[in-house]
Amino acid sequence: MNKEKQIHLVMPYSRLHMREILTEAYAPMNIIWHPIVFADQAQGFNEPWIDPVIIPKDSPATPNMKDPIVKMNDFIATHNFIDDDYYILATDDGMFESNVFPAVKNFDDDVVIISLKRGNNIPADVGPTRAYPTTTLIAHPGNVRIGMVSGDQVFVKGKYFKEYRWDESSMVPDGLMAIYMKENHSVRYEPELYSLFNFYEPGRWTERNQDEQKIAFGVMVNDQTRLDMVLRQSQIKGNMHYLDKPESATKGLNKLLAVMEAEGAEIGVLCHQDMFFRHDWVKQVKEQVAKLPDSWLVAGAIGKDMRGRICGKFHAMQIPNYHDTSDVHTFPAPACCLDECVLIVNLKKGFRFDEGLEGFHLYGTLIVLQAWQMGLTAWVIDAFCEHYSLRPLPFFPDESFLSGFKWIYKQFHKTAIRIDSTAAEFSAETTKKEVRENENQR
User: At residue 230, what are phi and psi to the nearest 5 degrees?
Assistant: First the structure.
């Protein structure tokens, strides 16, 4: 009978007041806890599942920033590792969600990387070096880089953990460790499993009223009259930023995203100049966003579901009838593309559009495809609004639209679940044929 795989929390331990709190929290989780302590810190670890690692000297009078890394290397040099158990760096004020350890025990990959939530707030009393953003670090190959991954996301088999030495000269040694493991071993990514950063730091995890979330609007303008007649007549309040006649949609939208982020907004609404929002729209958006997973990057009022069906509650004012697909969909609903008239962006993810897409079409498709590429998600939410567009129906794709669709197809067709657009009933098979023909003509 195979021995059950164990999870080992390797913890450079210095917050002595946390011993009882951590013991109570981890006791039901069926793990092995290795607090690494100096000789004068070793008292009180009496549970059979706690295996302290004692450094045979007293703690220094003045703690050093490098002490945790020195402790990690001492642990690696002296510990008797179990090759197929998982080991992970654990901070002494962090925590893991309750489903993490049972899930990881069932895996057998060399390395397992999970996501990390950074809390709801930046505590008011922390210094600049500890004012970490609240951005969730999503488990994804593209995020294994400095600033986007932390040591307490990375579970490593004992036979590989014991071979690595932490860089005592680096300010980001856990990021370097994650990069090394990705480059040298097979990695499993689990974006829906979460460790909890600085979980016991006062203020960081305080629940936050959704009404406190700051929302801003960004608008590209090419017709001042339409802006004044429609969007500026909306019944909403909030900061509105305008950009006049940008070179392309992606370049203009990136400028607007940067402006909204700089002012501290957490939700950015990129909308057309001819959108109209009623008085309760912002409140409804915040209520819907509260239902989304931490992986959400973008949401919209109208889009297509994963089967290519129109999804949402929306009125295109060229026609009497309005869309309401609540008989088919439960909101929020996963989206394969969103209409460009209103895109609601999670500014905490630091997203920017790929400016390789030229023109002013299809960025509602692009943002969804980029979200998937980043390991993030896209949604249609219940947020009824009205689009007073002057574009005649039906819409026939022009050369600019077709060119943009071909560019998107070339970039994403190998990895995308689906490539679609709300602007037209557009066959991906037709596009494949045209792309092949264009390539053959070169």
Answer: -120, -75
- Tens of pLDDT, residue by residue over 115-147, are 999 887 778 777 777 777 777 888 999 889 888
Do domains 7-196 and 210-438 share one topology? The answer is: yes
Check residue 211 and report its DSSP letter: G
Contact between 410 and 432 (Cβ < 8 Å): no
CA distance 73 to 55: 11
Residue type, 98: S
Mean pLDDT value across the chain: 87
Cis omega (within 30 of 0) for bond into 128: no
Place of tokens 């998937």: 372
Dihedral of CA atoms 263, 264, 265, 270 in degrees, nearest 10, equals: 40
Which pLDDT score, from 0 to 100, does residue 172 have?
A: 87
CATH 1.10.10 assigned to 7-196: no
Residue given tokens 């008011």 in the structure block:
124
Q: Regarding predicted confidence, which is higher, 203 or 115?
A: 115
Inform me whether the pLDDT recorded for 61 exceeds 80: no
CB burial class (10 A; 0-12, 13-18, 19+) of residue 77?
Answer: exposed
For the whole prediction, is pTM greater than 0.90? Answer: no
Gap between the Cα atoms of 313 and 81, Å rounded: 56
Name the CA dihedral angle for 43, 46, 47, 52, rounded to a multiple of 10 degrees: 40
- Residues linked to residue 208 through DSSP beta bridges, in sequence order: none
Residue 296 scores a pLDDT above 70: yes
105 CB burial (10 A radius; 0-12, 13-18, 19+) = middle
Contact 248, 358 (CB under 8 A): yes
The CATH fold of domain 210-438: Spore Coat Polysaccharide Biosynthesis Protein SpsA; Chain A (3.90.550)
